[in-house]
């Protein structure tokens, strides 16, 4: 352990702002990227599912139209 | 061997294989980045010249070196996609681009936050910094080209050509500190000779470099799987997954 106390660790030998800015932005950016990437999968699947229901509805209405003509 | 490799170009197999690999990459990434960062922040000795500000190195160097490695990965995937018309390779390139952009941004930002206390300035227009900024723009160019075509085969071709042409920037970044005089220090890790860095600083750095690589691998797998699903919405196996997801 290089630091005597927790306050010492936070202070980073007087460079606290630069060190914690770097680490903060890095892990903040990475966390955002990871969350967005994981969520994207569900979004894509829901979109495909919506398309499927739309197609089915279209097929059904087409079927009834044909029946009414005959 | 080519036949065996080709079977992994099949979207469903690629989807399943990347699903199997994902937990391994994730666990390794968390372990390595955790170890490297805690070691670097708490246990690595204070630098005699730069004090504790040098601790930024444990994320700056991994981010910078991996931003170039990820670019090479993306360009290789694009090349395979362009030459052999393998769509799964194009999707891999599309999956890597946003990750590379974020990693490059991190490299630039941590570099600026390290430059301010050590050089007295956030930014200088010297070769190393400028070429790394160009790398960020290359990633953004690839992302926007891929996003701007409805036809993704065409989009991948356009983005792929940009990615391949942009490879010229990688040796420029790598050797900029040797070719031109720069505020940026030359590399301290050497492969062929002894590194100019004490080993209790070097080990956490190496661990974090490998850790960042694993993490980029893991995020790539996540995005790659989503990209496969998005591009194969007409296939029965994807439709099954979609209806199952909607029912949730």
TrEMBL record, chain A:
What residue ranges are annotated as transmembrane? 15-36
Task: Specify the protein's topology with respect to the membrane.
Answer: Single-pass membrane protein
Tell me the keywords, alphabetical order: Cell inner membrane, Cell membrane, Cytochrome c-type biogenesis, Membrane, Transmembrane, Transmembrane helix, Transport
Where is the protein localized? Cell inner membrane
One protein family per Pfam: CcmD
Q: What does this protein do?
A: Required for the export of heme to the periplasm for the biogenesis of c-type cytochromes.
PANTHER family in the cross-refs = HEME EXPORTER PROTEIN D
The family line of this record is: Belongs to the CcmD/CycX/HelD family.
Spell out the protein name for this chain.
Heme exporter protein D
- Which organism is this protein's natural source? Shewanella litoralis
TrEMBL record, chain B:
Decide whether keyword Membrane is in the record.
Answer: yes
* Family named by the database record: Belongs to the CcmC/CycZ/HelC family.
Principal subcellular localisation of the protein: membrane
Question: Topology with regard to the membrane?
Answer: Multi-pass membrane protein
Subcellular location per UniProt equals: Cell inner membrane; Membrane
Q: What is the lineage of its organism?
A: Bacteria, Pseudomonadati, Pseudomonadota, Gammaproteobacteria, Alteromonadales
The Cytochrome c assembly protein domain covers which part of the protein? 8-184
Enumerate the UniProt keywords alphabetically. Cell inner membrane, Cell membrane, Cytochrome c-type biogenesis, Membrane, Transmembrane, Transmembrane helix, Transport
Q: Per UniProt, what is the name of the gene that codes for the protein in this document?
A: ccmC
Q: Which residues cross the membrane?
A: 21-44, 56-84, 91-115, 127-147, 154-173, 202-224
Task: Name residues in a coiled coil.
Answer: none
What this protein is called in its record is: Heme exporter protein C
Q: Which domain of life is it from?
A: Bacteria
Pfam families of this UniProt entry?
Cytochrom_C_asm
Function as written in the Swiss-Prot or TrEMBL entry: Required for the export of heme to the periplasm for the biogenesis of c-type cytochromes.
């Amino acid at each position: 352990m290089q630091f005597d106390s927790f306050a010492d660790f936070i202070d980073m030998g007087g460079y606290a702002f630069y060190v914690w800015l770097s680490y903060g932005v890095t892990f903040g950016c990475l966390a955002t990227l990871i969350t967005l990437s994981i969520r994207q999968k569900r979004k894509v699947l829901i979109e495909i599912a919506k398309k499927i229901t739309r197609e089915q509805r279209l097929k059904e209405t087409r079927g009834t139209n044909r029946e009414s003509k005959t | 061997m080519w036949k065996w490799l080709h079977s992994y170009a099949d979207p469903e197999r690629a989807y399943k294989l990347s699903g199997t690999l994902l937990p391994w990459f994730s666990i390794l990434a968390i372990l390595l980045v955790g170890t490297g960062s805690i070691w670097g922040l708490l246990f690595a000795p204070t630098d005699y010249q730069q004090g504790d500000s040098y601790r930024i190195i444990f994320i700056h160097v991994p981010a910078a070196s991996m931003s170039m490695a990820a670019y090479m990965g993306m360009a290789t995937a694009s090349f395979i996609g362009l030459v052999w018309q393998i769509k799964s390779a194009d999707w891999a390139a599309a999956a890597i681009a946003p990750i590379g952009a974020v990693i490059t941004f991190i490299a630039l930002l941590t570099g600026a936050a390290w430059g301010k206390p050590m050089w007295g300035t956030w930014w200088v227009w010297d070769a190393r910094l400028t070429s790394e900024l160009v790398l960020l723009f290359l990633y953004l160019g690839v992302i926007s080209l891929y996003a701007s075509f409805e036809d993704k085969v065409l989009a991948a071709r356009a983005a792929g050509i940009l990615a391949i042409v942009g490879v010229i920037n990688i040796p420029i970044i790598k050797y900029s500190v040797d070719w031109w005089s720069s505020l940026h220090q030359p590399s301290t890790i050497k492969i062929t000779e002894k590194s100019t860095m004490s080993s209790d600083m070097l080990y956490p750095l190496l661990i974090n470099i490998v850790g960042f690589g694993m993490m980029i691998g893991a995020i790539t797998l996540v995005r790659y799987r989503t990209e496969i699903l998005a591009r194969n919405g007409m296939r029965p196996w994807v439709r099954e997954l979609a209806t199952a997801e909607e029912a949730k």
